[in-house]
User: Fold these one by one.
Assistant:
Number 1:
Amino acid sequence: MKLRWPIVLLVLSAAAACGRARQEGPDERLTVMASILPLADFVRQIGGERVRVEVLVEPGASPHTFELAPSQLRAASKARLLVLNGLGLEYWAERLISAAGNPRLIVVDTSEGLPIIAGDADEPGGNPHIWLSPRNAMHQVRKIRDALMRCDPGGAPTYEANSARYLDLLESLDREIARAAAGFTHREFVAFHAAWAYFARDYGLKEAAVIERRPGQEPSPEDIAAIVRLVRSSGARAVFAEPQFSAKAAEAIAEEAGARVLFLNPLGIPPDYGYLDTMRYNLRQIAEALR
């Protein structure tokens, strides 16, 4: 049989064009903006393939000193849901919402309804580091689930099933941390800043001192001397630093007090970030210092 090459090529070209059309068609997923990486992970766990998530605070940056980029303001004008931690962590949130001019944008504050620990003078709403206790994280997951269902009622069965599965995993993590903490021989620790107050409260520990009381403000020599005395008197064997900040002060305190520097990571490290794995890493570091 003699092939008619022009016709064959025409058919193949049309098929290729259809394939490109499918690949390059509009993205029908729900666009969600999340302030920090842990909240973005919660959204992905609940939303699955129905959502497209953008993280506002870039990995490795601190939400306490974050500045919005013009591209993020533009992106917010097309987003459907904005997921915030709340308690003033996103001090820029009102500016983002106002600049977006997006009447369809739903905003969820995941801290609403939680018992809040008092913050310092710069945190009138309370300590914002709620996600660092899995018990609080469960509350945040439920708030995100409900917000997604409001944005996308048709996806409710997916959001219900995914959140139930993920809440089971968070409950297992909670039990794992509680068992480990029950066996610690030390209860007090020194942290870089007051990020671990909720973790300490929920698992019977004590954040005895913090190195940096305000974001970006290094401790004075008098502050360092006081923390050194506290580390010595408490018998703490480690001082916790964080990869998002300089460890210089933590290293000075640890050297003077005869302790080690260990790293806790409140925000995690991409590209393979997962809240569960990050919290298990933090648990191992805490156990190294307190067991």
Number 2:
Amino acid sequence: MKINNEMIENAYNIAKDVYVNKILGLSDGASILEDEFKWTLSSAIGYIHVFDKMLKGDLYTRTINGSATKYYLQNIFNDYGYDALQKALVAVELHIEYYKKLGPINNIEEIYNYFKNINNPKIVYNEFNDEEDKYFIEGKVKQIFINIYERDNNAREKCLKYYGYKCSGCGLIMSDIYGKIAENFIHVHHLIELSRIKNEYTIDPINDLRPLCPNCHSIIHRKTPSMTIEELKSIIIK
């Protein structure tokens, strides 16, 4: 799978919604990347997970490509400030040390050194002069998910408080099948696809979100644009 700039941007913003805004679970976020943005599930989980490790300054062993490393470092600085960038650099350094023991690494060390040696990384574009670095012009960073959610960090919780944990498609309650381990487990589906939202938008948890079991959530995204809840219900074999 070739990971392009748009995919990296979407992964970063989904990771923010998982680990910072806490309105998506990891499985929900990975499913959105897989269904709407053509990621493989394992890569989606890996790229989301690396964001969390960078924020904590912890070792991550899953490699992300150079463009993603640059994007993550630049935007962690933009979103959370210089101290957060320093933590992220600790995580990258640990990652480099880990992989040096295994063999050659990509250009991550060069990227690490650049960020490590600057005090105020507002513009990275001129230093990394290639097409992929268009994201690093100050003030030009595109945003999709963060503008949707930044006014309400509890949209998922509000949706589930209103609708409960019963799937809006097939009616399944996961714990009825799998027992306690699946208690309160459900995906939350966006009726307006995230990929179609370009401007600032405030989520209405009641009107814009619905709980769906993982199966229904996967099926509803088999079409582009995704099915409506009513279309999904119409194809379920009774």
Number 3:
Amino acid sequence: MLGTRPDIAYAVGALGRHAATPGEEHQHALNRVFRYLSATKDWGLVYQRGSPEGLMLTSYIDTDWANDLGDRKSTSGYMFKLAGGAISWSSKKQSSVVLSSTEAEYIAGAHTAKELVWLRRLLGDIGMPDDNPTVLRMDNQSAIAIAKNPQFHNRTKHIEVRYHYLRNKVKEEELKLEYVPTGEQTANALTKALNREKHNTFAKEMGVYRPA
């Protein structure tokens, strides 16, 4: 999951929370993951020289608000692509309970922005600098509006200052937020369980599939 299979990141993270006290339902879920891996053992990350986006860094971010029924914390996921395949991804439960899906997405955006800045610096160091803002695709228009417009004071005054890192990077034009419909949000596969068709579609979007 860490090196070559972002398509199982959500499942591994969800199961890992119960590693100390597993139950029968967790074993059943684990068996499903093993069956999936067995059926897709010849899948891998595929990078393409002629991919439509070329060597331009692209990214997706998604959050499943309050999806943990035990503590009502949200799960965030992000994915960065280069040459048609994922180069960095994360599926992680947020550390605190938030009051809305907008806040959850905004907080996830701040963490993703840190990874984005690091990747841009890395690409610059190896001779692939990009003077244009990197597009960060989100499916929450309210979170995008808050990041672009600091006038939403009543809706953001309870959010910790550190999460406004996202707004600062938008202002500095290092990243550009772009809305993407939920049905086209590749990072969905990193935040929630999906049906087979959607999961496989998003896995391929991440560059995980059977090479020709």
Number 4:
Amino acid sequence: MKVGFYQFSPRFGEVGQNLEAVASRLAGVQADLIVLPELFATGYQFVSKSEVAELAEPVPAGPTTQCLIEIARRQEIFLVAGLAEKDRDRCYNSAVLVGPKGFLACYRKTHLFFEETLYFVPGDTGFKVWDIGIAKVGLLICFDWFYPEAARTLALQGAEVLCHPSNLVLPHCPDAMITRCLENGIFSITANRTGVEERGGKKPLRYIGQSEVVAPTGAVLCRASMDGEEIGLADIDPRRARVKSLNPYNDLFKDRRRALYEI
């Protein structure tokens, strides 16, 4: 299958314009699975809860998810994208999975980062794996990568590809995802954004780009620049993620000594 990411710099609060940019840029892209950044339609640097509530949307009824569904249907593609989700009086930093037949799943970010803790409710969906036919995928959002239990939980459930919408400002993740893939024997697709946000007198947030596709061997199959708008694509075989043996004597999962890991 062909997988990839779209790395770009969304304009804060310009949901319609950001959706149009994604639809236009993805038109004609030949791929099976594309990942978009975290909060790709709204921007990231909120300044108040009321601002979040105004821009957040229900899932799957909101315009962002509906636009993604239409793109997926038209191009016969699976998409994973981060968005601000509204559920009654709560707002979540979420990601949706849609495909040619419509809405499939919503994941709510488990590990909130920095000022997200002021504006969003910690996710309650847990880590789940979805079989999309051509692969089994698991979803993480940005700072979730910092917790190895997140990727391991998905891998133990059979995930072959981690889809990882992000708004990375720390420098560590692009290289750290190599370790996440190695220790779990899986593929990952990290879709980061670029640009700078400086709102409400806050310290500027500078996004590091470097979206990437990483193989179970730790090989970086595709990595974007730090500041360019780019679509990155790579050919992968998800079946490689089902093989956990490293050599005739070692198996990533069978060799785990769970009784000694308890705290």
